[in-house]
Amino acid sequence: MSNLVIVESPSKAKTIKKYLGPGYDVVASMGHVRDLPENRLSVDVKHDFKPKYTVIKGKEKLVDELKKTAANSDKVWLATDPDREGEAISWHLAYLLGLDTHDVNRVTFNEITKNGIREGMAAPRCIDQDLVDAQQARRILDRLVGYKLSPFLAKVIRRGLSAGRVQSVAVRLIVDREEEIRAFVPQEYWTIDGKFLAKGERKQFSASLYGLADGTKIEISNQEEADRILAALDGAEFRVESVKKGQRRRSPAPPFTTSTLQQEASRKLGFQARRTMKVAQELYEGVEIAGMGAVGLITYMRTDSLRISEDAIREVREYIDNQFGGKYVPDKERHFKTRANAQDGHEAIRPTSVGLQPEEIKGSLTSDQYKLYSLIWKRFVACQMSNCLMNTTQANILAGDYLFKASGSQVTFDGFTVLYEESTEKGGETASYLPVMEPGTPIRAKELTGNQHFTQPPAHYTEASLIKALEENGIGRPSTYAVTISTITAREYVRREGKNLIPTELGEVSTKVMKEHFPKIVNVRFTAQIENELDAVQRGEENWVQTLHNFYGDFDKTLQKAKADMDGVKITLKEDQTDIICEKCGRQMVVKMGRYGKFIACPGYPECKNIKKYVNYTGALCPKCGGRVVLKRSKKGRIFYGCENYPNCDFVSWDEPSRETCPRCGKTLLIKKGKNPKLYCITPDCGFEKTGEDE
């Protein structure tokens, strides 16, 4: 009997073929095979939003081959990814191959391992129509918003603009944060901080003024107040009033979900979300490990769940006991509570086998695969380890009418921190030294200083904090965050400054237009409500067609009113203006967007049709010939930098040229980004480098 198993990618097919063995032919669909065509709406709004699917351009030959192979097979198994998109791909494949959607031929694998494949093949089911309908509803909803709003924005602001149900809200969050930062007015405040010595001690400790001796907190708003208090403390006797001792327990972070993996990979590894998901997909589908062949190293990477299988918990507890000792194994297994609206179809992201330690298989992995696998492996092992124990001490110190407070901590048992600690946007906490003190102990002030501070504005969003905000507000789903962030940066609504996401003028103007004319589309709560309704479709609680009707009626009315209100209005962006004067008619030329990208044109069109090639000058000078450096894009869309004098000058670099010059040879320095950013000189025999820590 011949069995045909259809998966999505060749690497996954290769790994699964290894475990299934003879009698099974495993082939890849290369992702989606049928979809709404790109060049038209392809949704019949008047007839219950009936979609008009076609085979994706360029996949006709692949589909024909799949049909022939399926026709010659006794049984066809649909084994695409175990999520909403995977279910839809299986449904489309069933249609194209003439399979019965009620047939028990759908199999899913939570992990691409021998056990995972065996369990999946042993539990076939029908295609889940609720999952398919949820995907269709989401796809059609996004198509309606995108294809109806984009022409409106293009007409009002700039040709080529696009809008999206989730991307527009993401841009709004970034724009709103920028407005908060601009509106922020710093408030001055002062602290009085001291270095002290306890009697009989040689090591100094720190303490800060809290308030009055009766416990009333003091807020110091200017230097005059600070100087007055410092004068009152001059010559004062310091002594310990009270000491409070305690013990603090720190518990490990839960295993990764899609969202937390993207956040932590951004903070710890400097990975963008798209890069994280690409590498995670590789680890899930299978990597060639020396002496083992293709092995799926992690469980499915698109999940909201914190659930861990009992087998995995048992395995990791045994590993911890063997590698670290019994005291690192907590008395009870750790189970983590998944948030209320999460999709619990899969486990949390974890290694398929804890025994495959990152260091032991490092030679078989790419640099990115090793880094991400290590992160996932350590996080999972740590989540089942004992708490970190700390002794804490808080001391109140009196000096005349004033009260100082000091605190310190000492780790008595490192627990899970011996392996892994979660990072945060603000960085980790540091323990401070505090000597053994008793009430009444005399204290000597070695130094007292008044320090000026100013309140800080909210931080710009980074990828990590934006993903966290999207998840907390119920906007989109973790599996879509990478695509959303890539889209808003690629379409120049947002630019990157280091790790920060900053709105462009285009992003701010388009968000202003959306707020004024489509307030619901960029409303966080409304978008979250739509997500909840789509989830209800997935659970079989709502009809997908009715969900679309509920949305579209009001949306279409809003769109027609916006078109009427903005008829004849054209917003010109400052960033689209140039200092180039049209030599034909004398007008100031502007940047326009055409079918093939940006170009410079006379605003007098159609009377004047003068156009010029658009060149994106970086402001830096070529380190080889001194010409101007321009930003370019490769055929795959990747940004690189070259000299305007090409081909006479062959300077080209993936690294961005800075506006700084080398102090040794005077040439332009390049910016090396990543975990350890630096400026460096490419001039032969120069070798100058400047890290972020250099003065």
Short description:
The protein has 695 residues and is of the alpha+beta class. It contains 17 helices and 30 strands.
Structure description:
There is one protein chain. The protein is α+β, with helices and mostly antiparallel strands. It has a six-stranded antiparallel β-barrel. The chain is globular, with a radius of gyration of 31 Å. The model has no long low-confidence stretch (mean pLDDT 92).
Q: What topology does this entry show?
A:
Layout: E1 3-7, H1 10-20, E2 24-28, E3 34-35, E4 43-44, E5 50-51, E6 54-55, H2 60-71, E7 75-78, H3 84-97, H4 114-121, H5 129-156, H6 167-183, E8 188-198, E9 205-212, H7 223-233, E10 238-250, H8 258-269, H9 273-285, E11 287-289, E12 293-295, H10 310-324, H11 358-361, H12 367-383, E13 388-399, E14 402-413, E15 442-454, E16 461-462, H13 463-472, H14 478-490, E17 494-497, E18 500-503, H15 505-517, H16 524-538, H17 544-565, E19 577-581, E20 588-594, E21 597-601, E22 611-613, E23 616-621, E24 628-633, E25 639-643, E26 652-653, E27 656-661, E28 668-672, E29 678-680, E30 689-691
Parallel strand pairs: 1-2, 1-7
Antiparallel strand pairs: 3-6, 4-5, 8-9, 8-15, 9-14, 10-13, 10-15, 11-12, 13-14, 16-18, 17-18, 19-20, 20-21, 21-22, 23-24, 24-25, 25-26, 27-28, 28-29, 29-30
